[in-house]
Amino acid sequence: MKGICLLLDLYELTMAQSYFETKKDILATFDLFSRNLPKNRSFFVASGLEDILRYLEDLSFDSESLNFLESQKLFSRGFLDYLSKFKFTGTIFALREGEIFFPNEPIIRVTAPIIEAQIIESYLLNTINLQTTVATKAVRCVLAVKDKGIYDFSLRRTQGFDAGLKAARSSYIAGCKGTSNVLAGKTYKIPIVGTMAHSYVMSFESELEAFSTFSEIFSENSILLLDTYDNLKGLENAILVAKELEKKGKKLKGVRLDSGDLVRLSKKIRRILDKNQLNYVKIFASGNLDEYKIHHLLKQDAPIDDFGVGTNMGVSVDSPYTDVIYKISEVSNKDGQFLPTMKLSRGKVTYPGRKQIYRIKDKDGFYKEDILGLEDEKLEGEPLLFCAMKDGRIIFPFPTLDEIRQYLKENLKRLPLKFKELKRRSIYPVKISPLLQKLTRDLEKALKTRSTRGI
Hints:
With 455 residues, the chain is an alpha/beta fold. Helix content is 41%, strand content 18%.
C-alpha cells in the first residue's frame, strides 16, 4: 500500500532521528507481548505474523512520503536522506500463527539497529492487536459450536475494510468454515457464503414470490430467510418452495432464523420440516450471536445446524483489544556487546535479555506449563519462538491458511479443558527460569543504584 511507511506514531520518527544523531550504530532487542488476559479469556491465539513479515521485507520510504515529512519542518536533511535509503535489516523471532500463548510471553522478538526497531513499532502493535484479538475471540465461538458449522458475518460492523479482511482471515484460522466477505474469499481463498436480506423479501409483492424467485436462480444453494414478517408463515412458504424444488430434482439447502426465541423456534421448525419429509433442510441461525448465546442455544438442545456470527466476533465486543506492548530488553554498547535492560515502573516491570519460551507437556501430550527463560539456557520443553526473518529477509515458507488452521486445531486438543471454558478464567502456569529471575534481580538492583546516583 502506497504511503504505508507513514503508518506509525510521530514519536517513532522523532526518537529515530535522535538515535540517528547520537547512536546510529547501536543495536537493540525488543519484545512484543501482552501483560494481561482480557475478561473470561485463559489464552491468546497468535495471528498476524505473515502481514508483519511481508511489511518488513518491503518497507521503504517513497518520495511523496519523504516530501510530507520534510514539510513538517521537524526532521534534518541527513535523517531524511537516511530514510530515503531505508531497508529493514533485522532479525525476527516469532510464534507461529495459530500458536496458543499466555501473558508475558513474547509473540515477536526483534533484534535490529535501534532506529529500525523503533520505526516498525506502531505497525507491529497495530497488526498483532487486531488479528490476535479477533482470532482469540473467534476460537471461543468455534469451541462453543462444537461440531456445528460457524461462519464469519462481521464485515459490515468491523472498523474499516482492512479490519474486515483481517477479521475474516483470523476467524478462518480459528476454525470458522467460511465468510460472507467476498474480497476475503478472493484474497485468502476462504470459502464464501451468504443467504438473503430482509430487503430482498420486501422488494417482492409476496414472500412466496421472493422465495420462489431466489430458489429458481440459486436452486442448489438457497437458504431462505424466514423472519421478515413471521417465522412460521415464512416456513410455510419455504416448504412450498422446497416441494417445488423436489419436483425438479433439486433440494432446498436451508432456512435462516435471525430473530426471536431461537430455541423454541428452531425446535418447532425442525419438527415441521421433518413432518414434511424435509429432514435434509438445515436450520441456520444468526442475529447478534456470540459464544455465550451459542453455548446457551446448544445447551437447550436447539436443533441448529450452522451459525452466522457477525459483530460480536468481528469486533470482539466484550474485549475489543489486546493490551500488546513493545519493550526494549537489551541494547548494544559502543563495542557491540549486548547489555540487558528493563523497565522498572510500578506494575510495568519487564524482563530483560533475549528470551525464549519453553513449553512442557505431560505424559499424555497435554500442555503442562511454560517456562520463560533466556535464549541460551538449556531448559526442558519445546522452544516456541522460531527465526522467521534474518538480515531483513524472510527465511521460511509461509504455511497456507488451512495449515495454520490445522495447527491451531491440534494445539487446542493439547490445551487442558479448564482453559477452554467460556465463563471462567483459569491461569496457565508460566514460570520464570532461575537464570532469568537472577538477571532480573541483579539488573533491577543495578538500575536503581544507577538512578539514585543520577539524582
